[in-house]
Amino acid sequence: MQQILDLIKQDPIRLSVLEQVRRLDLPQCYVAAGFLRNLVWDHLHNKPVATPLNDIDVIYFDERESNPNAYLDYQHQLSTAMPQLEWQVRNQALMHQRNGDGPYTSTLHAMSFWPEKETAVGIRKLAENEFECIAAFGFETLLFGQITHNPKRDRSIFLQRVEEKQWLTKWSQLKVITGNMNEN
């Protein structure tokens, strides 16, 4: 995890993102998915220029939130602060309904249902130079350059995402792990 923190601290845009998200002061709130995953994969592939972020995934967990559209206000606040980025904010306490799962109990629990294990990672800024990283499946496979199917989701969804997101084109040395066979 220290390796991930070292990479984050070298990236001024990511540091600014984390500061803006911290200011929202949302419960169990992290910047997740490609925000960390892409940073690590870029590092593993010795990319001199960071892969552009398609969007910034901000996730939080608030069971008491009464307005199901509150996330739109948070997205607006972030877009106002950093308009050059595409923001996507989601309350994970509600996402089980869209995904057809039983209720999630926390942000980390919700992440454990994501299609790829290496995407289920997040980070938040707690205070100046103090960060917290979480991973539903640990950081080991991410740091080894793998993209692994989560058996809680249909394998075809996983394979479709690998293809559509062109991960093997962007990061050619990734190892795809589908559960019953390995592909390069």
Coarse morphology: globular
Output the number of helix runs: 9
**Biggest sheet layout:** 5 strands, mixed
- Stretches with pLDDT under 50, minimum 5 residues: none
Topology pattern, helix = H, strand = E = HHEHEHEHHEEHEHHEE
Q: From the alpha carbons, calculate the radius of gyration and give it in angstroms.
A: 16 Å
Summarize this structure briefly:
This protein is α/β, with parallel strands linked by helices and 184 residues long. The protein has 9 helices and 8 strands. It starts with a helix and ends with a strand.
Give an overview in words.
The two termini are 25 Å apart. The strands form two sheets. Strands 3-2-1-4-5 form a five-stranded mixed beta sheet. Strands 6-7-8 form a three-stranded mixed beta sheet. It has a single domain, classed as Beta Polymerase, domain 2 (2-Layer Sandwich). The chain has helices spanning 2-9, 12-24, 34-44, 70-81, 92-99, 107-111, 140-143, 155-164, 167-170, and strands spanning 30-32, 56-60, 87-91, 121-127, 130-135, 146-148, 175-177, 182-183. β7 (175-177) and β8 (182-183) form a beta hairpin. The longest helix is centred in the first third of the chain and has 13 residues, at 12-24. It is α/β, with parallel strands linked by helices and 184 residues long. The chain is 41% helix and 18% strand. The mean pLDDT is 95.
